[in-house]
């Protein structure tokens, strides 16, 4: 791990640190000298350095210190893959929480959750391989091959991080990958937390609804099916941010309370994450069937997750994801431990729509594994299995103290070899304004 220390945005000399070498913690894709591809990258107005800059601005709103670095996982899918990782409170001896984001997202979208999770335990959030700042290798074309490649990348990351076992949290597509990982490496998973997971139910065979859709709409949908889900953002080039703004104007509202000084950062971040090579997105396209369903639904396999691994589902009551899959899985696993929580008023992005409720549910689950506490596997399964259908909005998590703003910045010990690190605390002022955009992240 190479060691560069990043100061908080309000500290004297922070700009000098960035100016010294702005590419030291940037994964730059190989230049294949293909003229059309170079032209396309310029047309999309994106770069790894631009993505790095906007991510740092968003994460500067965290109150607790964090470290960001690349973890070299070797030839997991490509020749030399690296996974961008943000970690917090790694000195804690509690069971670590590992977080996998959804389609088209990245670590910065956990900005309203990380402080709460890291208060009492180690937390690791990664950019899934093929997304965000991680390497973007070429995945296979077969659905099961892509799924196994994602799982392999997570396992290689775990091995490099020397994490023996973990609480694994996945949102949307990340929930699908987390479930597949638990099937392949059950000895590494203490608890599986699935936030509005994608890819669980089977695609309905009833075609009565499609008959009500106009013929021309069905024709266009058929033509666009071979394309990656977020192709329009890249096709719009420098106007991609405008496309995000017009298609999903609610993203700024989701994060307004946290990033109130510069709410335009979130749409810019989404654009920068998805305007680059659609490596992971192409793999998702190979795994999907008509976007809303997986070619190999997890509901047919999740029952095979080892019986002593508890599963917690957290659904948004207004989400387009079918929450009935959780009930079916609960019945499939019999007396095995399954917990279903519904967050009233939240949509698919339950972690951002109702962050206080979401954070409390996740922390309640993680707290069962605190040192000295009784493990759920040793208690009665009936005591653990319960269904929560209220939002509990009246119970808010206490705000974390802002002592980190005055904390002395110290370089933390290396995590693994070949990793670049940054450390930051919350910024007290907004930074460079960016182009206004909207929110396209409903189905990510």
From TrEMBL:
Residue spans of biased composition, Low complexity class: 420-432
Domain (AB hydrolase-1) ranges: 96-355
One MF annotation (Gene Ontology) recorded for this entry: carboxylesterase activity
Record region (Disordered): 409-444
Principal EC category: transferase
Residue ranges crossing the lipid bilayer per the database entry: none
Localization annotation: Cytoplasm; Lipid droplet
Keyword Transport in record: no
Known EC number: 2.3.1.51
Keywords from the named record: Acyltransferase, Cytoplasm, Differentiation, Fatty acid metabolism, Lipid biosynthesis, Lipid droplet, Lipid metabolism, Transferase
Any one Gene Ontology cellular component term annotated for this protein: lipid droplet
InterPro entries: AB_hydrolase_1, AB_hydrolase_fold
Main location: cytoplasm
This protein's record includes keyword Transmembrane helix: no
Catalytic activity: 1-(9Z-octadecenoyl)-sn-glycero-3-phosphate + octadecanoyl-CoA = 1-(9Z-octadecenoyl)-2-octadecanoyl-sn-glycero-3-phosphate + CoA; a 1-acyl-sn-glycero-3-phosphate + an acyl-CoA = a 1,2-diacyl-sn-glycero-3-phosphate + CoA; 1-(9Z-octadecenoyl)-sn-glycero-3-phosphate + (5Z,8Z,11Z,14Z)-eicosatetraenoyl-CoA = 1-(9Z)-octadecenoyl-2-(5Z,8Z,11Z,14Z)-eicosatetraenoyl-sn-glycero-3-phosphate + CoA; 1-(5Z,8Z,11Z,14Z-eicosatetraenoyl)-sn-glycero-3-phosphate + (9Z)-octadecenoyl-CoA = 1-(5Z,8Z,11Z,14Z)-eicosatetraenoyl-2-(9Z)-octadecenoyl-sn-glycero-3-phosphate + CoA
Chain intervals with Polar residues compositional bias: 409-419
GO biological process, alphabetically ordered: cell differentiation; fatty acid metabolic process; lipid homeostasis; lipid storage; phosphatidic acid biosynthetic process
Family per similarity comment: Belongs to the peptidase S33 family. ABHD4/ABHD5 subfamily.
Function according to Swiss-Prot or TrEMBL: Coenzyme A-dependent lysophosphatidic acid acyltransferase that catalyzes the transfer of an acyl group on a lysophosphatidic acid. Functions preferentially with 1-oleoyl-lysophosphatidic acid followed by 1-palmitoyl-lysophosphatidic acid, 1-stearoyl-lysophosphatidic acid and 1-arachidonoyl-lysophosphatidic acid as lipid acceptor. Functions preferentially with arachidonoyl-CoA followed by oleoyl-CoA as acyl group donors. Functions in phosphatidic acid biosynthesis. May regulate the cellular storage of triacylglycerol through activation of the phospholipase PNPLA2.
The name this protein goes by in its record: 1-acylglycerol-3-phosphate O-acyltransferase ABHD5
Organism the protein comes from: Drosophila grimshawi
Gene expressing this chain: Dgri\GH20321
């Amino acid at each position: 791990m190479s060691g560069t220390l990043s100061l908080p945005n309000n500290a004297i000399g922070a700009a000098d640190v960035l100016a010294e070498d702005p590419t030291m913690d940037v994964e730059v894709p190989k230049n294949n000298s293909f003229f059309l591809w170079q032209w396309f990258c310029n047309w999309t107005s994106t770069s790894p350095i631009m993505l790095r800059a906007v991510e740092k601005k968003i994460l500067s709103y965290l109150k607790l210190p964090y470290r960001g670095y690349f973890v070299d996982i070797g030839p997991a899918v490509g020749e030399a893959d690296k996974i961008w990782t943000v970690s917090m409170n790694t000195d804690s001896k509690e069971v670590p929480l590992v977080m996998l984001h959804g389609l088209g997202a990245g670590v910065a979208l956990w900005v309203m959750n990380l402080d709460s999770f890291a208060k009492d335990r180690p937390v690791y959030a990664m950019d899934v391989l093929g997304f965000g700042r991680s390497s973007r290798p070429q995945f296979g074309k077969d659905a099961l091959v892509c799924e196994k490649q994602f799982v392999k990348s997570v396992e290689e990351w775990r091995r490099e991080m020397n994490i023996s076992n973990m609480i694994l949290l996945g949102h949307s597509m990340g929930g699908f990958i987390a479930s597949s990982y638990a099937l392949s490496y059950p000895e590494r998973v203490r608890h599986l937390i699935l936030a509005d997971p994608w890819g669980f139910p089977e695609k309905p065979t009833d075609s009565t609804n499609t008959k009500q859709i106009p013929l021309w709409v069905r024709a266009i949908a058929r033509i666009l099916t071979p394309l990656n889900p977020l192709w329009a953002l890249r096709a719009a080039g420098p106007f991609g941010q405008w496309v995000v703004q017009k298609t999903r104007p609610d993203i700024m509202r989701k994060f307004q309370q946290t990033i109130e000084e510069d709410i335009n950062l979130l749409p810019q971040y989404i654009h920068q994450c998805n305007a680059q090579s659609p490596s992971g997105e192409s793999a998702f396209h190979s795994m999907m069937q008509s976007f809303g369903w997986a070619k190999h639904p997890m509901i047919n396999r999740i029952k095979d997750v080892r019986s002593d691994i508890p599963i917690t589902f957290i659904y948004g009551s207004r989400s387009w994801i079918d929450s009935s899959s959780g009930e079916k899985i609960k019945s499939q696993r019999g007396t095995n431990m399954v917990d279903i929580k519904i967050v009233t008023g939240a949509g698919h992005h339950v972690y951002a729509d109702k962050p206080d409720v979401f954070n409390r549910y996740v922390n309640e689950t993680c707290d069962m594994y605190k040192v000295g506490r009784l493990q759920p596997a040793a208690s009665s399964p009936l005591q653990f299995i319960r269904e929560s259908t209220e939002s509990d909005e009246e119970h808010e998590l206490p705000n974390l103290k802002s002592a980190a703003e005055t904390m002395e910045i110290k370089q933390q010990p290396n995590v693994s070899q070949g990793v670049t690190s940054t450390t930051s605390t919350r910024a007290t002022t907004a930074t460079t304004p960016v182009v206004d955009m909207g929110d396209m992240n409903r189905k990510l």
